[in-house]
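Please, structure for the following, as tokens.
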Amino acid sequence: MVKVLDSIWGLLQMAFHIALGPLLHGRRTRWGATDAEVLQQLPGDELVREPDWSYTHAITINAPRSAVWPWLLQLGQGRGGFYSYEGLENLAGCNIRNVLEIRPELQRLRVGDTIRMIGTGFGPRVMMLDLERALVLGGKPEGDGSRATWAFYLFDGTGGTTRLIERGRHLAGQGILAKLGWGPYLVDPIGFVMSRKMLKTVKRLAEQPPEQRVALPGQFYQAGG
């Protein structure tokens, strides 16, 4: 019942943001972020040098980077999910199951791996991986010229906190389908609702007492392609 109510709430938010579309676009594209964070050049920005649109979301987590990073490593369909509205994702046929504990077998990730969005295997590849600092997802341009990056960055905050920044950069190619699939018209309002839920969930999970998380027995991060 809780998941059903959660999904209904997510749908209502999406309907609200789609209805108000351009009026809230500016606010959505910088939710939680400071002016400096929006303007900051970050690794991976160069993969889409001149995006049609972009966003920078941010949230402060009352935990060190080492407590946040494992949740980012688990992202993906068939992995840890996306910590968002699972019911809505599955309504679209994504077959997502959010994993709300740290699992050592999901901590293995390397450059070139695909982060699946749906069960068919579609999804971006890991373009950059910097331990406890940056995870950049993307891929080669599509046949119509469309391209996007989806990235996460961790910065030390004051008093042992972490600043988690999520950034997306989108370039829509030629044709109406490209404009709809990569442009801001639907991706912005729908993606914003899903992303905000994800960031808030990661914050909640990372702020759990250590005894509520599965201890990692060793270093499972693998660098390189």
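The longest helix spans residues 184-206. Residues 2-212 form a domain with the Alpha-D-Glucose-1,6-Bisphosphate; Chain A, domain 4 fold (CATH 3.30.530.20).
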